[in-house]
């Protein structure tokens, strides 16, 4: 069975959505959900749906939340053989959405991932380099991202996670085979405004000049932009009526990774990602 390593975050996601217009500085009636998340965890679980053996390299705590992560991974078939168990609490994310399902604010505490260091990863490097792909996310420290970009010979797939974390990869983004930022993260990484399609083209050109082979930029309700050194394009969103996009980006990422491993063209990978993201949205309806 083909193996993919995922080095990144696993967390407890706590999300809230009001019943009507969200009033700031007040307690709003609504719904609150608690589930296992984290970009690394989510992509890893999605990848098992494509019949890969997935190794998740992460750090979690030792309490009840850690057991939730372990149960989620066991159910999905994700291996935690090399995952670190630490004294700190498991990573936690709190997200508040508006009545339409768009994020108002999110707060992330992934400090436990400071234990995912080059020293921890070094003994695993031979196995990582034999894998079909290594997925890395922006929850990792700058030092760890730099180490992986310099040491891993398997194709690297990078998800920046957020604008606040995107810059952690610093000048090493060119070592990645493929990247999947959203338009805001792409703008932050490239220094190009991505408010317009023309700006997105400029950002993708910059990524390719740095050495990235395949660029996928999520445009939310507008679809996905794809580019490589031979072409580029925009695919309209496959789901137009989504009110909850939770998990769509990670589903898109996993499908793109599967396409890359199978040797599909960049456009074909984008099509697969777009369709997978739409299915995730439809499951939330």
UniProtKB/TrEMBL annotation:
Pfam families noted in UniProt: PfkB
Keyword terms, alphabetized: Kinase, Metal-binding, Transferase
Any one GO molecular function term: metal ion binding
EC number: 2.7.1.83
EC top class, as a word: transferase
Residues annotated as domain Carbohydrate kinase PfkB: 1-283
GO cellular component, one term: cytoplasm
Protein name according to UniProt: Pseudouridine kinase
Gene symbol of the encoding locus: psuK_3
